[in-house]
Amino acid sequence: MAFGVNRRELNKWKERVGKGEVAFITHFWVDERFPAVKSVTKAGCADLEKLSQWGKKYGLKKDWIHMRSDGFPHFDLMGDTQLHILKEEGLHDHIKRFIE
């Protein structure tokens, strides 16, 4: 279950992803499969090659791209990987809001 973002933030992420930008959205998340995880960042881009190349620089494999039926392909970033990438991408507001 996702929560902590509003419709405007979600729509802005979808718009940027649809335009072929690598875009980020972080939200609180509860999933019994990952009891220690409290948030997830979705790094998405409609251009799969661009997304794959972006992920490669962080050691993410193309096979890990989540292909949703409604579009909006993305990597799900959690834990230490999430924190590292958010820092590298300069997304300190995501860290402050959802991780600290």
Index terms:
single chain; 100 residues; alpha+beta; 19% strand
Briefly characterize the structure:
Helix content is 38%, strand content 19%. The chain contains four helices and four strands; from the N terminus they run E-H-E-E-H-E-H-H. This is YneQ.
Structure explained in plain terms:
By secondary structure, the protein is of the alpha+beta class. It has one domain. It is built from 4 helices and 4 strands; from the N terminus they run βαββαβαα. Strands 1-2-3-4 form a 4-stranded antiparallel beta sheet. The longest helix has 12 residues. It starts with a strand and ends with a helix. It comes from Rossellomorea aquimaris. This is YneQ.
Helicity range:
25-40%
**Which series of helices and strands comes N to C?**
EHEEHEHH
Cα-based radius of gyration, to the nearest Å: 13 Å
Number of distinct beta strands: 4
For the largest beta-sheet, the strand count, sense and barrel status come to:
4 strands, antiparallel
How would you classify the quaternary structure? single chain
Proportion of strand residues:
15-25%
Q: Could you report the average pLDDT, rounded to the nearest whole number?
A: 93
Low-confidence stretches: none
Bulk shape: globular
Strand order of the largest sheet: 1-2-3-4
